[in-house]
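User: Predict the structure for this protein chain, please.
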Amino acid sequence: MTEQHFITRVGWLRAAVLGANDGLLSTSSLVVGVAAAAMPPNQIVLTAVAGLVAGSMSMAAGEFVSVSSQADSEKADIARERGELATDLEHEIRELTAIYQARGLKDELARQVAQQLMDRDALGAHVRDELGIAEHTVARPIQAAMASAAAFAAGSLAPLMTTFLLPGTILVPAIFTVSLLMLALLGAVGARMGGAPMVGAVVRVAFWGSLAMAVTAGIGRLFHIQGI
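Assistant: Here is the predicted structure, written as structure tokens:
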């Protein structure tokens, strides 16, 4: 039987969960804020659409830039290791041996393991065991950017459709309800896919979602009262 490890999903799962939660919460907060300020329905809808588009592009750009920086660092470290292997192989063997000794192997066995692994793939052994770069954790900027943008747009759909379908008189409580339910669902799904406890994830996203919407609703209400 093949074992299933959730860590293999960490690259795209982190970006997808972050994007979906951000899309849902950002768009909901925007809509709640302008609705509490008693803005006309067409402006509320425009705010939701603008939030979806701008947020998706922002998430994609931000994720691409940040993950590209990680990828650049990884490439620089790998190039440095390649150069060290070409100029001082014995030092690199001792370096890898010391890593295995620190993990509990006896001196002679650690040296044998290091030598055999380097005979097969010296660079791969150092990238994996010295730098800690593995296939499932390697930076993939385009994948992360696309996942974040798509997830943000998907998360924004719930408040956007609620804005389209419901009148302004009940929009604020409706957005609160729909958003909290969707946030709880996203928290549960993300925890399930990552193999983590669901209750803590649900409570966490529901709390911060409620706080964000309450703050923006309060600001919108304040602007409405003062006639700004």
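Residues 1-8 have pLDDT under 50 and may be disordered.
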